[in-house]
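TASK: fixed-backbone design
INPUT:
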C-alpha cells in the first residue's frame, strides 16, 4: 500500500510569514473606482489598495476609458499626482548582488506639465534612496510609454526588505499615469518544513515540500536528491523517478509562499521494525533560483530535510465491549460495535484495516446477531432478559495471522408485551368483542376481561381497570371473579376494578388472567 503526497500546488497547512519577491496587484485591478457604471476615478486610502502603499496615504485610480484614457493593461490604472506628488511603493525582499529586471507603463496626463517624470528606484523603509533604476519622462498624453529592462541591473544596496517605489518631482495634482508594473527577481526555494514525521500507515502523511516565492518566466526543473537515511528506497518509500535523484518541474508563474509536493510515497510494508529516515537535499541552480528562506528576508534557508517514518506495524489491540439495558421485546439491530476501542497498526480499527470473526472455540448466542463486515452486534426481537456474550477475533488486513480476541457482552433488560381483550360473548371471535353484539334492556350481561402476557419475560404487578359503557350500570359491590394465572389473593368488586384497579400476580410469558363481572342493561 502506497501513501503519498502528490499533485500540484498545495496551500500551507498553517499561516506562515512570507518573503515578498514580486509586485502584488501590478495593474491595480483589485479596485473598481466608484464601483460599477460609467468609467470614473476615485482617490482611495492607500490601505484599501492591495499590495500598494503611498507616502501621501492615498492613491488615485482611474477606470480605463475615463476622460478617454485607456489603461495599458486591464481595466484600471493609477495617477501618481493624487492631490499632490508622492511616492507609490511596495516592500520587497532584496539581496545584495542579485539582478533586477522590470517593466512598467508610464503616460503623461493632459492638462499637466509638458513633460512629466516618474522615477523608478529602490529606497529604504524611511524613504532614503538606495539606488535609482530608471527615470521615465513622458511627453505624449495620447499614448503610453512602455519601459523595460530585460537584461537586468545588479542591486548594490544592503540585503533586506526595501521599497520598490515610483516618485515624481512634478508639482501639482495632475500628471503621471502608471500601469502594468512588474519586477523579475530570482525565485527563492527551500524545503518546508525541514523535519517531518508520520506513521507509516498515515493516509495523508506529513511530508516536506518545496516552498517557492518569486516568479518564473518559464518552467524550471528543481533536482532533489536522497542523500542518506535508514529507510530503503523501493521497500520503505518510492520517488517519482524510482532513483535517489528526481526532478520537480515548477511551471512558469508568480508564486507567493507556494508549497509544491515532492511526490514521495511511503510504503506500508507490514513489517514490525524501528522508525526509519529519509534525508533530502536540493541541487543548487543559481541561474534559475536561489536556495534561500521564504519566510524571513535574509534568514537561514532549509537547504536539507529529513522525514521520519514512524513504524506502526504493531499487533492489533482488542478491548471488551458491553451494552446494557437493551429492550428484548423490541430487539435492536445495533447495540454495540466490536471495533470500538480496538486498534490496528496503532490507529483506530476500521472495516478496511481489520478482519473480524467469531473467535475460535466461541459461538454466537442464538439471541444475538453479528455482522463481521461491520462489527455491529444486534439483539433479536422477543429475547428474554439475561446476559448474552461471545468472543470475537480481530486480525490485521496486512498481517492476517496477527490477531487478538475480546468479549462482546449484551445485557437484555426484562420486557413484556401485555394486552387485554373485553367481551360479553366469551369463546366467540377469539374473546374479542363483536360489533354486532346485542343486549336487551332490563337484562344482565356478563363481561370477561382477558389480560395476556406475550413475553418474552414474566410480568408481575400488572394493573387492570375498567369502566361501564353507555347504558350499562354496574353495581359497585358486584363481585369480580379472577381465574387463570396471576390470580391475586383476596376478593374484589367492581368498585376495585373501576377505581385504582386490580393488581395481578405473576404472569409468565404466554399466560393470561381472566376477570369476570356482571352488569345491568338500562
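OUTPUT:
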Amino acid at each position: 500500500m502506497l501513501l503519498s503526497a502528490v499533485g500540484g500546488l498545495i496551500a500551507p497547512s498553517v499561516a506562515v510569514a512570507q518573503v515578498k519577491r514580486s509586485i502584488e496587484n501590478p495593474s491595480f485591478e483589485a479596485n473598481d473606482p466608484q464601483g460599477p457604471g460609467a468609467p470614473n476615478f476615485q482617490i482611495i486610502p492607500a490601505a484599501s489598495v492591495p499590495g500598494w502603499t503611498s507616502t501621501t496615504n492615498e492613491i488615485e485610480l482611474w477606470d480605463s476609458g475615463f476622460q478617454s484614457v485607456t489603461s495599458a493593461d486591464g481595466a484600471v490604472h493609477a495617477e501618481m499626482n493624487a492631490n499632490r506628488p508622492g511616492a507609490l511603493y511596495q516592500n520587497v525582499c532584496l539581496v545584495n548582488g542579485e539582478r533586477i529586471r522590470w517593466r512598467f507603463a508610464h503616460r503623461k496626463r493632459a492638462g499637466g506639465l509638458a513633460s512629466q517624470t516618474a522615477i523608478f528606484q529602490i529606497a529604504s523603509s524611511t524613504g532614503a534612496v538606495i539606488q535609482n533604476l530608471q527615470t521615465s519622462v513622458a511627453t505624449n498624453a495620447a499614448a503610453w510609454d512602455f519601459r523595460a529592462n530585460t537584461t537586468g541591473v545588479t542591486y548594490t544596496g544592503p540585503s533586506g526588505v526595501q521599497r520598490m517605489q515610483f516618485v515624481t518631482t512634478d508639482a501639482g495634482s495632475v500628471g503621471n499615469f502608471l500601469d502594468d508594473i512588474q519586477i523579475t527577481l530570482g525565485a527563492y526555494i527551500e524545503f518546508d518544513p525541514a523535519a517531518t514525521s508520520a506513521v507509516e500507515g498515515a493516509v495523508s502523511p506529513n511530508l516536506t515540500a518545496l516552498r517557492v516565492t518569486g516568479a518564473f518566466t518559464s518552467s524550471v526543473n528543481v533536482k532533489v536528491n536522497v542523500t542518506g537515511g535508514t529507510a530503503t528506497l523501493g521497500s520503505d518509500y518510492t520517488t517519482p523517478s524510482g532513483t535517489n535523484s528526481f526532478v520537480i518541474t515548477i511551471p512558469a508563474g508568480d508564486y507567493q509562499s507556494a508549497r509544491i509536493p515532492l511526490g514521495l510515497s511511503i510504503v506500508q510494508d507490514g513489517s514490525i521494525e524501528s522508525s526509519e529516515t529519509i534525508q533530502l537535499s536540493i541541487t543548487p541552480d543559481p541561474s534559475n533560483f536561489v536556495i534561500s528562506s521564504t519566510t524571513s528576508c535574509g534568514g537561514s534557508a532549509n537547504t536539507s530535510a529529513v522525514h521520519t517514518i514512524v513504524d506502526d506495524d504493531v499487533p492489533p489491540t482488542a478491548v471488551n465491549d458491553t451494552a446494557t439495558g437493551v429492550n428484548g421485546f423490541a430487539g435492536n439491530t445495533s447495540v454495540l460495535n466490536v471495533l470500538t476501542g480496538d486498534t490496528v497498526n496503532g490507529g483506530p480499527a476500521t472495516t478496511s484495516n481489520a478482519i473480524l470473526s467469531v473467535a475460535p472455540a466461541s459461538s454466537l448466542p442464538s439471541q444475538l446477531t453479528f455482522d463481521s463486515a461491520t462489527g455491529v452486534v444486534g439483539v433479536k426481537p422477543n429475547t428474554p432478559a439475561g446476559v448474552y456474550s461471545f468472543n470475537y477475533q480481530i486480525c490485521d488486513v496486512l498481517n492476517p495471522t496477527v490477531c487478538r480476541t475480546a468479549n462482546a457482552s449484551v445485557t437484555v433488560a426484562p420486557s413484556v408485551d401485555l394486552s387485554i381483550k373485553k367481551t360479553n360473548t366469551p369463546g366467540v371471535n377469539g374473546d374479542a368483542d363483536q360489533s354486532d353484539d346485542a343486549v336487551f334492556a332490563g337484562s344482565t350481561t356478563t363481561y370477561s376481561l382477558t389480560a395476556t402476557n406475550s413475553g418474552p419475560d414474566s410480568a408481575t404487578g400488572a394493573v387492570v381497570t375498567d369502566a361501564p359503557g353507555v347504558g350499562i350500570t354496574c353495581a359497585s359491590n358486584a363481585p369480580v371473579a379472577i381465574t387463570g394465572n396471576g390470580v391475586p389473593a383476596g376478593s374484589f368488586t367492581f368498585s376495585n376494578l373501576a377505581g385504582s384497579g386490580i393488581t395481578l400476580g405473576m404472569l409468565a410469558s404466554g399466560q393470561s388472567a381472566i376477570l369476570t363481572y356482571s352488569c345491568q342493561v338500562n
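COMMENT: The CA atoms of residues 52 and 279 lie 41 Å apart.
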